[in-house]
Inverse folding.
């Protein structure tokens, strides 16, 4: 191969000093040359273990957990005879059980990963070796190989497309595995290689590619092909990425550039940040506290042992000699410390962590199985994609939502348009007047057009008349829509067209042009064929100027059959209106009014323009474009400058307006979530007018609000001033409200971080992307956050994906509140990953949001059920589980502490060692699991009807440090009674035959039986919702205790294992004594009665909302009154969801940044004068219970929920 002299000097090496790859050199058909760079093979490995490494690696990973290491440490202590007061199996049995369960789960997961890897690695591919195509497994493909793909085959590696069966080296691919989109995309080989169609020519191809190193950018690729003394620029349009599927192309050849782990698909499969709940973090803190408490108890008992041995034990050396090696009371105390650490370790049992995971798994299945969250239309169930965050669903305070496809359906309908200053699309009655809302005559008849889409509907016949009358502006308008796009057309039979568009907007626009007689029929890389009113016309496609996040527009340059060169452009109004020729001023003013009118109706707007180009200018511009395309440095910047140059002084054609309908149930869901004290922020890329109107449509903004603040500043000073004025207005209005309280009173009564959060009145904040960029700067972010958090609703317009994540991170950083982000597109992924909880909507924009999410479903309205039912129940169940678990283990363990003062601090256990082993595994595990999985305080209908029930989770009231100490105190109280009542009774009690009752074994059985009965009664009191499973587990555990107890104390086991089962016959003798049963009954009553009395008094004197709801339900059942359904009244008006047009670089990525138009006078006046929206107030009153509809002194409805 001859390398040209102009090969850049900046590529002397492939790898940098640290071993990182700086660039990639690949030579075709030269395996030996490529292998010296040690590029990765095409074998992928997502599995973690193999047969040899599984056991050591898995155990190493499991012992990374502090809890497992702690229990291993205890096991080692128990193997030391001098300090072990318990048999080793009391710890090893539960530890091995936990390790085994986790290992089986990990092994199962890894087996499926192995299976998937083998399936992929063993796929067959045709590789060109020595001029012959050979079948090779994917794992044997190497960088530099040329491989052949056939129709419907997966792409084996990241390939440079060399040639294909289609003209001009064109091929079509589907990228569902990469970005979830099923629409076809086009790729093209560079002209110099597109002629290499047979294996003999390809075998002689020895071109060398020098390109960027492996990275995860799916939409970008930069490189250069050096071949035959020439160099050719390469871009993403020439690449076929691993994971794509070849479609509608018989065959193609490609050169392997990246293989295996270096492919962009694998580079994007990085691990998502592990999310932990606030309860997890609290539990870790509490476990450390408990361990500290355990050490303190061990120290106290060790000191007691040393003193006892020094003062008393020394006198009994003949009867109680010290163990071998113990020569002093101090050393005896030291050994006693470790013995008590072993005995008392059950305050933090290993079964706690297993039980938590089992409960979370159960909650996840409940979400997956919920038929009320199943979308029959799309056959999509709700899915819990993680099991670690369920209880945090019950603590959400802030929801960050995308708009398009999340609040709206993302199904676009061409609704209205403005052409040459004339607006089309209003529904007209029979007399030609504008019809009232709800009056719809027959749609326009498109039967004249045999290629029309029968599903398309339009209601204004005057636009079709203008087409038929030959209006040149209307013709040019639809000609632009039929030419300026990236849609692919399939014609399965004559006249049966199917459009494959990446964005629904583009599909709607091209379909509209199709129905009005300008039918996009087919395309090649250099031509576009359109049927204009039945006449086939082929335009030469000279250039496509792509969308990107900065340009916010797309242009094509075409040559008509007459030879005239024209640029057609469509894009966001904020961008295109600045690039028009000055002679368009009058038309611009009229069109701007139409745009504001459309945006006021919540429609997505787009401006269309054109420009005629001189042949000489185009030739010069095209030459400069070619040079910029081949530039090794700053290629994108140079292209952007050339695009910007040609897209000036354009002539305005008109504007389009597309309707994106609101999803069913969105207003009701937002209103009810607002009543649950959840603040909803909408982060959208739409223009401001559209966002405001979507806010009104979904009841985020209401006419009852005190004020809606709009921040549109373009500088730091302007934004700071607007935020300051908003805060001042809120504070002034609150001072003037005479509601009988002052700021100080409100501030002291809540955990507010700012006086702003104590304001009276309801406010909303609307801020655009430019202003938000300034507001998120370090010196202003706190001011912005305080202002926003004082508002009931916040809408951020024209925001980028990065800004979405920054807003979420800002709230997480300063508010310490649980955040939830919900979206449906790739532009929402960063926000979803940043929030505590990410929810993906499986909609029209692929599945990237779903793949990045923690929970997914198909409609926004299901969020209400996810939070208010599943989230609230999960939080309630987990809190009750933890409270009870710590209680029962402290009650169990602290008995050893009290016993230590009566046994000479000798580390003697109260219970039989088998009871200690089985207590947390058998006797008390299943009842608490049943409560943790099935418990409810109120039925699901009441959870939805009374959103205020959600607030305890937000305030973290059910399990916190205070509740933990209450549980611990109750456990210690129970342990005191559990030990001292039997101890006091046994001191003087006798058997039926007059013999002394007091012996160690009888005492152990009595205390153990009392403990099992007391904790069983306690969980019965704690259970709020009884099922057959609860009954079976609670009473079954009691029965299992007695069955195992009698079996352990039987003669048979003693005869087989006399050294292990020493309590022979004890249970039968002890439990036959009435005194023992009276003692057990007394202990149970004394332990339980204070709890019953306290709960009764609390229920009577200070009931919680859930108590009141349950009482109301009981009263209604008794009275047999039919529950009234909530009547929902929608807001009257024509406001719909809205959007400002945006698209993707190349094939339509949503644009989320850019300048924003100020609110039109029409939209601003709508803030002050709107018909009253009474829906929320009706809902609040409906929730107000029987007759409690209190109003404030000023006459305004009371916003608080009464029950």
């Amino acid at each position: 191969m001859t390398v040209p002299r102009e090969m850049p000097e900046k590529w002397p090496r492939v790898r940098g000093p640290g071993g990182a790859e700086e660039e990639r050199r690949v030579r075709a058909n030269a395996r030996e040359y490529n292998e010296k760079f040690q590029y990765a093979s095409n074998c992928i490995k997502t599995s973690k273990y193999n047969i040899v490494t599984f056991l050591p690696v898995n155990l190493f990973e499991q012992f990374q957990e502090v809890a497992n290491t702690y229990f291993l440490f205890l096991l080692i202590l128990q193997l030391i005879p001098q300090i072990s007061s318990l048999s080793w199996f009391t710890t090893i049995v539960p530890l091995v059980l936990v390790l085994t369960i986790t290992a089986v789960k990990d092994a199962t997961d890894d087996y499926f990963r192995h299976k998937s890897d083998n399936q992929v690695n063993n796929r067959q591919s045709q590789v060109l070796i020595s001029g012959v195509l050979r079948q090779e497994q994917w794992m044997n493909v190497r960088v530099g190989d040329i491989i052949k793909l056939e129709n419907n085959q997966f792409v084996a590696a990241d390939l440079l497309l060399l040639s294909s069966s289609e003209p001009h080296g064109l091929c079509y691919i589907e990228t569902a595995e990469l970005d979830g989109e099923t629409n076809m995309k086009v790729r093209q080989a560079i002209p110099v290689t597109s002629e290499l169609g047979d294996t003999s020519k390809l075998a002689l191809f020895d071109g060398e590619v020098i390109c960027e190193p492996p990275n995860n950018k799916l939409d970008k690729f930069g490189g250069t092909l050096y071949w035959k003394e020439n160099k050719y620029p390469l871009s993403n349009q020439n690449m076929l990425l691993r994971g794509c599927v070849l479609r509608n192309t018989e065959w193609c050849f490609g050169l392997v550039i990246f293989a295996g782990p270096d492919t962009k698909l694998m580079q994007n499969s990085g691990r998502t940040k592990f999310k932990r709940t606030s309860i997890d973090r609290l539990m870790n803190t509490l476990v450390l506290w408990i361990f500290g408490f355990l050490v303190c108890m061990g120290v106290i008992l060790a000191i007691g042992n040393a003193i006892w041995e020094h003062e008393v034990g020394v006198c009994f050396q003949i009867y109680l000699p010290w163990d071998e090696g113990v020569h002093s009371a101090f050393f005896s105390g030291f050994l006693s410390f470790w013995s008590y650490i072993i005995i008392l370790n059950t305050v933090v049992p290993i079964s706690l962590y297993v039980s938590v995971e089992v409960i979370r798994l159960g909650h996840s299945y409940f979400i997956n199985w919920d038929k009320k969250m199943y979308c029959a239309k799309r056959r999509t169930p709700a899915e819990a994609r993680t099991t670690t965050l369920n209880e945090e669903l019950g603590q959400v305070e802030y929801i960050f939502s995308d708009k398009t496809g999340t609040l709206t359906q993302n199904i676009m309908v061409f609704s209205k348009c403005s052409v040459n200053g004339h607006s089309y699309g209003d529904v007209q009655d029979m007399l030609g007047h504008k019809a009232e809302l709800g009056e719809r005559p027959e749609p326009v008849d498109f039967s004249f057009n045999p290629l029309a889409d029968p599903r398309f509907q339009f209601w204004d016949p005057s636009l079709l008349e203008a087409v038929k009358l030959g209006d040149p502006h209307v013709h040019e308008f639809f000609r632009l829509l039929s030419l300026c796009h990236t849609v692919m057309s399939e014609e399965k039979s004559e006249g049966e067209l199917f459009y494959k568009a990446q964005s629904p907007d583009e599909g709607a626009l091209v379909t509209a042009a199709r129905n009005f007689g300008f039918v996009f029929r087919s395309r090649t890389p250099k031509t576009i064929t359109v049927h204009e009113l039945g006449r086939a016309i082929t335009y030469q496609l000279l250039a496509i100027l792509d969308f990107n996040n900065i340009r916010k527009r797309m242009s094509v340059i075409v040559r008509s059959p007459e030879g005239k060169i024209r640029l057609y452009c469509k894009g966001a109004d904020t961008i295109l209106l600045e690039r028009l020729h000055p002679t368009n001023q009058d038309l611009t003013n009229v069109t701007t009014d139409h745009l504001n009118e459309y945006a006021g109706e919540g429609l997505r707007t787009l401006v269309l323009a054109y420009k005629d180009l001189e042949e000489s200018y185009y030739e010069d511009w095209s030459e400069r474009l070619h040079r910029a395309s081949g530039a090794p440095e700053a290629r994108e910047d140079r292209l952007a400058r050339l695009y910007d140059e040609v897209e000036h002084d354009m002539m305005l054609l008109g504007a389009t307006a597309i309707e994106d309908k609101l999803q069913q149930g969105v207003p009701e869901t937002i209103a009810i979530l607002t009543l649950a004290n959840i603040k909803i922020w909408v982060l959208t890329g739409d223009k401001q007018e559209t966002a405001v109107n979507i806010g009104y449509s979904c009841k985020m903004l209401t006419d009852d609000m005190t004020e809606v603040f709009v921040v549109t500043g373009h500088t730091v000073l302007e934004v700071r001033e607007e935020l300051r004025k908003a805060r001042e207005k809120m504070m002034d209005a609150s001072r003037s409200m005479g509601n009988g309280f002052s700021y100080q009173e409100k501030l002291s009564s809540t955990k507010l971080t700012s006086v702003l959060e104590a304001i009276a009145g309801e406010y909303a904040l609307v801020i655009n992307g430019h202003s938000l960029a300034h507001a998120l700067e370090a010196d202003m972010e706190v001011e912005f956050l305080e202002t926003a958090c004082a508002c009931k609703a916040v809408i951020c317009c024209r925001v980028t994906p990065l800004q979405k994540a920054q807003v979420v991170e800002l709230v997480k950083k300063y508010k310490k509140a649980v955040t939830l982000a919900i979206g449906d597109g790739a532009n929402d992924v960063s926000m979803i990953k940043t929030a505590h909880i990410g929810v993906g909507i499986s909609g029209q924009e692929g599945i990237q949001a779903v793949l990045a999410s923690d929970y997914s479903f198909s409609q926004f309205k299901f969020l209400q059920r996810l939070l208010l039912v599943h989230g609230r129940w999960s939080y309630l169940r987990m809190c009750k589980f933890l409270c009870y678990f710590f209680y029962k283990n402290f009650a169990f363990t602290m008995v050893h502490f009290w016993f230590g003062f009566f046994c000479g601090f000798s580390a003697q256990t109260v219970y039989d060692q088998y009871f200690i082993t089985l207590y947390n595994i058998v006797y008390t595990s299943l009842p608490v699991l049943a409560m943790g999985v099935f418990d409810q305080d109120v039925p699901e209908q009441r959870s939805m009807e009374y959103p205020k029930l959600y607030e305890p989770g937000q305030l973290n009231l059910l399990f916190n440090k205070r509740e933990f100490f209450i549980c611990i105190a109750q456990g210690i109280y129970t342990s005191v009674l559990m030990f001292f009542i039997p101890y006091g009774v046994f001191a003087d009690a006798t058997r039926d035959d007059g013999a002394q009752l007091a012996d160690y074994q009888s005492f152990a059985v009595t205390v153990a039986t009392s403990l099992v009965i007391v904790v069983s009664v306690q969980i019965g009191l704690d259970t709020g919702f009884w099922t057959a499973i609860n009954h079976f587990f609670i009473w079954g555990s009691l029965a299992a205790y007695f069955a195992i107890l009698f079996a352990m104390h039987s003669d048979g086991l003693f005869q087989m294992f006399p050294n292990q089962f020493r309590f022979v016959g004890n249970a039968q003798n002890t439990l036959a004594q009435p005194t023992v049963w009276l003692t057990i009954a007394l202990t149970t009553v004394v332990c339980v009665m204070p709890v019953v009395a306290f709960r009764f008094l609390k229920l009577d004197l200070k009931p919680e909302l859930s108590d009141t709801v349950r009482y109301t339900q009981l009263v209604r059942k008794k009275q047999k009154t039919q529950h009234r359904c909530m009547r929902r009244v929608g807001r009257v008006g024509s406001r719909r969801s809205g959007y400002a047009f945006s698209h993707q670089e190349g094939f339509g990525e949503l644009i989320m940044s850019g300048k924003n138009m100020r609110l039109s006078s029409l939209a601003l006046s709508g803030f002050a004068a709107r018909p009253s929206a009474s829906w929320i107030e009706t809902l609040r009153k409906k929730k107000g219970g029987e007759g409690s509809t209190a109003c404030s002194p000023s006459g305004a409805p009371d916003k608080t929920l009464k029950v």
In short: The domain at 141-269 is CATH 2.70.150.10 (Calcium-transporting ATPase, cytoplasmic transduction domain A).
